[in-house]
Design brief:
Elements lengths: L11 E4 L1 H4 L10 H6 L1 H7 L3 E4 L27 H13 L3 E6 L9 H8 L11 E2 L20 E4 L4 E4 L14 H16 L4 E4 L2 H5 L14 H13 L4 E4 L5 H8 L8 E3 L1 H13 L3 H9 L8 E5 L6 E2 L5 H11 L6 E2 L3 E2 L3 H4 L4 H13 L3 E5 L55 H6 L4 H13 L2 H5 L1 E4 L7 E8 L2 E8 L5 E6 L9 E4 L5 E3 L5 E6 L4 E6 L7
Parallel strand pairs: 1-2, 1-14, 2-3, 3-7, 7-8, 8-9, 9-10, 10-14
Antiparallel strand pairs: 4-6, 5-6, 11-13, 12-13, 15-16, 16-17, 17-22, 18-21, 19-20, 19-22
Helix pairs in contact: 6-8, 10-11, 10-12, 14-16
């Protein structure tokens, strides 16, 4: 059973081929380059790689405008390069999941081109059309301020077509059984080539019934169950990791009855309140969010993250809360995006304060679920706000102080590497940090090992321990008679907290610090008195040694 639920105790590393490593010197990252950098990921200790879209694409939206679901974009190499990468990753014990972008296609996809030219084409009904311009044609945009409508008139088809995203990304109609059968074939194809699952893009839009007019769309959660079955039939331990920024009450339908929906979901609800806590020093909204997302089927799991390839989405916060996060982490208009988020990387958002960056990442590993790291965050990379929209956080990986940060030998790269200043590749790069025992890279690798050695966090039952301090989050995990306790102080002042584990925790009178040579004995009142530095964090194991089941 544990082997089938491998994702429960995984550490996921998110990367985009385009930005990771250029192996052939053309200025664009590729599978050859990634394969050559697997040793870095092995050193880091991650066991699962999440690949952003790499299939043939016009690349108007970072590859999320797919033109062919059954191949590799020539910019990234060949199918043979993909197979070699999979072989080398497997040799290192790493799993690979890939983006599944089936809410829409590129407008250059042969399906759409045939659909717009021939009303009798079998592909015509694979997309959503309207003869007249719908009354809601300027509502529901995913990219407000940049995107201008959700319906666009096609001069060839002489009809309006629906697109939740940009106008070059027409939506597929999931109601059509042939569309769902084709998605099953796409999933089967890549599973046959070795992937362990899919990060499913824009899940709510996949399952909604798009129709002209103001009516609320119907959500077909049975489509997720179909996809779950396809993945499991092709490979028993294959998983679906869903992108669905929804409320806690809605998540049960995405996980499905008995966990028959998507196995994993990104916890956007908690993510937004992590940054609220970092901005305010008050963990109470974060504690509330954790409790609100606690219940899910036993086989399901939350994917916890700090930053990703998009903006930091704050859309689920109140206006007052969002203003507080903006003021602390994105006060300038150029740092904000789509009226809801911040287009910055983690380190500069936190002012480059090593204490705060460590606190945030320690918390990531300590949260209930599976941690997801973003490439470059292991060395505290920065962003380039001169680039448009989300490109600011999609700059090349910084490997060394050589030209283009060691990413490519080309004269010009797909985007310029961050150069100069505090976060330029001349100062922030893997090579320099690999040699420095006190670097953030080496700290991250050590924390990945700690997290992998604490399966209680991925598997166990958990509760929040009262500390009497609103600025402190204390979590207690128990699994198979083993207990882990973590504490994180979000204040810039040191504090002492009292923590009681209760009689139900065997051996709870002794806490052994996992990160340093210290331990704590409970007082006569059964409470541990623990000191926390400003922005400090501590990890303890009850009794010191993990007992075997």
């Amino acid at each position: 059973m544990i082997d089938d639920l491998w994702y429960k105790n995984a550490v996921v590393y998110s990367l985009d081929l385009e930005s990771y490593m250029d192996g052939n010197g053309d200025g664009v990252g590729d599978f050859e380059g990634l394969t050559g950098r697997l040793d870095h990921l092995e050193f880091l200790g991650v066991d699962t790689i999440w690949l952003a879209p790499f299939q043939p694409s016009p690349n108007k939206d970072n590859g999320y405008d797919v033109r062919d679901y059954y191949g590799v974009d020539q910019r990234h190499g060949s199918s043979g390069d993909f197979v070699e990468f999979m072989h080398q990753a497997r040799n290192r014990g790493m799993r690979v999941i890939m983006d599944l972008v089936v809410n829409h296609t590129s407008d250059q996809h042969p399906w759409f081109q045939e659909a717009r030219k021939d009303p009798a084409s079998r592909y015509r009904d694979w997309y959503v059309w309207s003869k007249k311009r719908p009354t809601d044609w300027k509502t529901g945009m995913v990219f407000p301020g940049v995107q201008h409508s959700t319906w666009t008139f096609d001069d060839v088809a002489r009809h309006w077509y629906f697109h939740r995203f940009y106008d070059h990304q027409p939506d597929l109609d999931m109601q059509h059984p042939d569309v769902r059968r084709e998605i099953a074939r796409i999933m089967g194809y890549w599973i046959a080539l070795g992937v362990s699952g899919f990060r499913v893009d824009a899940v709510p839009f996949i399952i909604e019934t798009p129709a002209p007019g103001p009516e609320m769309p119907v959500l077909h959660f049975e489509y997720l169950e179909e996809m779950h079955r396809v993945a499991q039939w092709r490979r028993g331990d294959a998983i679906l990791l869903g992108e669905a920024n929804v409320t806690p009450d809605e998540t049960k339908d995405y996980f499905g009855t008995g966990g028959r929906g998507i196995q994993m979901m990104f916890n956007f609800w908690v993510n937004q309140r992590i940054f609220l806590a970092l901005a305010s020093g008050d963990t109470r909204p974060l504690q509330k969010a954790l409790k609100e997302t606690k219940k899910h089927p036993p086989a399901s799991q939350w994917a916890q993250f700090l930053r990703n390839h998009d903006e930091l989405d704050l859309g689920r916060l109140t206006e007052e809360e969002r203003a507080a996060v903006y003021a602390r982490f994105g006060p300038e208009p150029r740092m904000q995006l789509y009226d809801r988020g911040i287009r910055r990387r983690l380190a500069p958002m936190l002012g480059g304060d090593r204490r705060l960056v460590e606190l945030a990442n320690s918390l990531l590993f300590a949260l209930p679920g599976t941690p997801v790291l973003r490439y470059g965050d292991e060395i505290m990379m920065g962003e380039d706000l001169s680039l448009k929209e989300r490109d600011a956080v999609r700059t090349p990986m910084q490997w060394s102080d050589e030209r283009n940060g060691g990413f490519s030998a080309a004269e010009k790269t797909y985007l310029p590497a961050v150069s100069g200043g505090v976060y330029g590749y001349e100062r922030v790069n893997v090579a320099a940090q690999r040699r420095d025992p006190n670097s953030f890279l080496n700290w991250t690798a050590s924390m990945v090992r700690v997290r992998r050695e604490c399966p209680e966090i991925g598997w166990g039952d958990w509760r929040i321990l009262p500390t009497g301090h609103a600025e402190v989050l204390a979590l207690c995990y128990t699994w198979r008679h083993n207990t882990i306790v973590t504490l994180h102080n979000f204040a810039d002042q040191a504090c002492d907290v009292r923590v009681r584990l209760g009689e139900e925790v065997a051996g709870g009178d002794l806490l052994v610090d996992i990160l340093r040579q210290q331990e704590s004995r409970a007082g006569e009142d059964g409470a541990h008195r623990l000191a926390l530095d400003p922005y400090g964090y501590r990890w303890f194991r009850v009794g010191g040694l993990r007992r075997l089941p």
